[in-house]
Amino acid sequence: MHPESPTRGRDTHGCLKTPHKYICNSIPPANMSTTPRRTGLIGLSSSAITSWAADGHLPAIQSTAGRELYQITALCNSSVAAAESAIRTYQLDPTTVKPYGNPDDLAADPAIDLVICNTRVDKHYETVLASVRAGKSVYIEWPIASSLAHVDDLLAVARASGARVAVGLQGRFAPAVLKVKEVLRSGQLGRLLSTEVRGFGGTFDREFLPPGLKYFSQKEVGGNSIVIGFGHMIDYVQSVVGNVVVGTDEARTQIQRPRIRIRDPQTREIVEEVDSDVPDLLSVHGSLPESPYTVPGATLVVYFARGQPFPGDPSLSWTLNCEAGAIRLSAPAGISLQADAYQNPATISVHHHATDTVEAVEWSWSEDQLELPVKARSVQRTLIDFAKGNPDGYVSLEEAAGRARQLARWLDGSNK
């Protein structure tokens, strides 16, 4: 760690500052006196194809900081037997963790304060609706739901019940993203003129999908490489530079590979071929709002394609062009800064125009985060702030609904 001195100090994110280096430790200290929230997990399955609940949320809750704020007291899966199986698989205490097979029963339990949903996106609405209606605190992983109608219904129910609802757009709180935001808004490079983003990902391969992600080819399910992969990326980008001004944005989509091969990840054999109605390429061009750190008419340009980049190119290259210099975040291993895009280092650098020199900008995980698997680190940050009621540390349902509407407009080809 880096000891503080009177000339260094910390910024509003708890990041150490020096004249030329930036070292980010983004987790606030846990409140030791807070009674842990009695928490029900929906979707922690012993047989799930994808395991974000197990890889992200469970380690975060069971960490030292997480245990001070959360106590797992219930699991809800497709059946009581499935919940019991998960309790055994993850070695939870069967005397204190109650199994549920129906989300309505979970919602009716007065001994549950908070519900976390990690199901497939087309099950989000039906699994959290009763808990939101009951006024419980609810954390829904992104995307919110498979349709805007369901998103709007959840908003209306939450307003009526007073439920506090967060959505898992954790990327905007990843230390590297917070560091880019800090450098931009420090003013040392002047105001933002434009920003360019090139991202590749959403799935591991451009040609294939595994059987468990076959639904990524079905737009109606609501979970796919655009809404999830691109959705996380464009959210953390706009959390730094501002939301594109509606009416100035133009989006173009393409389905480059309309026929998708489904490949068994174990045998590498093609087991099926399906037609896809989900774009695998999306480009967006628009203007950013004027601000103290952004000039009028500043431009955002984004290019995203499903799958791998050209060999040797990073999966993510994000440049912020300012009056006196430029900031670049490069992530060779992926666009998922909220998850596991760190197998190779994600780096930040600054080009100072006056001296034509490039400076490395340091960032780091907090001590609490370093105790965890990478996928759980940004989840832990948002869960801690959600439990503490810190609105600057998580994304509310209202704000996430705005992002869902923006993505829907771009996917539908509407710029209004």
Structure summarized in a few sentences:
The protein is α/β, with parallel strands linked by helices and 416 residues long. 28% of the residues lie in helices and 26% in strands. The protein has two domains: 31-168 and 367-396, Rossmann fold, CATH 3.40.50; 171-364, Dihydrodipicolinate Reductase, domain 2.
Give short descriptive properties of this protein.
416 residues, seven-stranded mixed beta sheet, Rossmann fold, disordered N terminus, 20 strands, 11 helices, Gfo/Idh/MocA-like_OxRdtase_N, alpha/beta
Would you mind describing this structure in some detail?
The chain has helices spanning 52-62, 64-67, 80-89, 103-108, 124-133, 148-161, 175-185, 225-241, 367-370, 374-388, 397-412; strands spanning 16-17, 22-23, 37-42, 70-76, 98-100, 114-117, 137-141, 165-168, 192-201, 208-209, 250-254, 259-263, 270-275, 281-287, 294-306, 316-322, 325-331, 347-352, 357-361, 395-396. The chain starts with 15 loop residues before the first strand and ends with a helix. It is globular. The protein has 416 residues and is of the alpha/beta class. It folds into 2 domains: 31-168 and 367-396, NAD(P)-binding Rossmann-like Domain (Rossmann fold, 3-Layer(aba) Sandwich); 171-364, Dihydrodipicolinate Reductase, domain 2 (2-Layer Sandwich), CATH 3.30.360.10. Helix content is 28%, strand content 26%. The strands form 4 sheets. It has an 8-stranded mixed beta sheet with strand order 11-14-15-9-16-17-18-19, with helices on one face. Strands 5-4-3-6-7-8-20 form a 7-stranded mixed beta sheet, with helices on both faces. The relative contact order is 0.16.
